[in-house]
Amino acid sequence: VTADQPRAGSGAWAEFTVERVDDDVFRVPLPLDGDALKAVNVYLLTHGDQVTLIDSGWSFGRGLELLGEALGTLDLDLTQIDRVLVTHFHRDHYTLAMRLRELFGTRVLLGAGEQCSLDLLLAGRADGRRSMFTLWGAEALRGPVDALSQEPPSFYAMPDDWLEAPTEVSVGGHTLEVLPTPGHTRGHVVFADRAHGRLFSGDHVLPQITPSIGVESVPSPLPLGDFLSSLQLVRELPDLDVLPAHGPLGATSHQRVDELLAHHRHRLDQTEEVVGGRVLSAYNVARQMLWTRRERRFSELDPYNQVLAVSETAAHLDVLVRDARLIQHESDGTRLYSTPSQEATPCAPR
Ligand SMILES: [Zn+2]
Fold it and tell me: Are 13 and 30 within 8 A, CB to CB?
């Protein structure tokens, strides 16, 4: 789910199917019932009598059954999955892999940068970023967020191996470059298959929406800075077909990365404008911005999306501080942002 949706997308991609990408690559959207994202694309890479998955769906609901059905159309079954390569720790990508491992001993690999988030989850200390609320000046969200209905429990455990990106993984005749792309989460990775011109982009590069930034209990100090650098990293690769975790095939990486970079440049400008001559918390800035492609007011968002909106705003404010377009100070644990006065503009370090 993202609070920033620059353009509308068709939902047809989310209907369950087995879409052939190549003789040995298939896209299978598994439904995310009740979730705004509608579905997650699982990619099947067949090799010999085995199949490797990229991302897996979530551990509850119809995912396992439908994945079995999809494999059946290729004369394969769930026991023939040798590995699941996972782009990031979010439940719609990672937790069905945990079920597969429990049932069939399937190996599961995840980016090493997700270790901190998994430690917190397994210790029962993942708090949906409630620990950030004071910093953001968003104490007003605590009650509404606590009142949200409990989600079904997701099935989490440690992976079998950590992917120490950058590294490579061989799958049949394919060499997948595992590239670190922190931003959406700290340990997000993408899988580039240069020989076949493909980028399995997870949630890093999505064709129809802009990924939310720092969606984890303990974000990095500058998650949007990480995300923009990770977009640059992908932009420096050859132009590749984007095989995203949410949304249809058809986008190419250079054009889509350029659009995402432009979106954030525009959003940085808007954020700076809202601060104007005032001293504001991230929460106060977020309340004065418009959200989603339909330009909704902050007060029209549900509490979960309000958290995403404040988090997104804080991420932009912190990049503006890094770039000396704003300054910050803390008061009672809340970070306040303001416009630097002319005299106070710091010299750019050489
Ligand atoms: Zn995600």
Answer: no
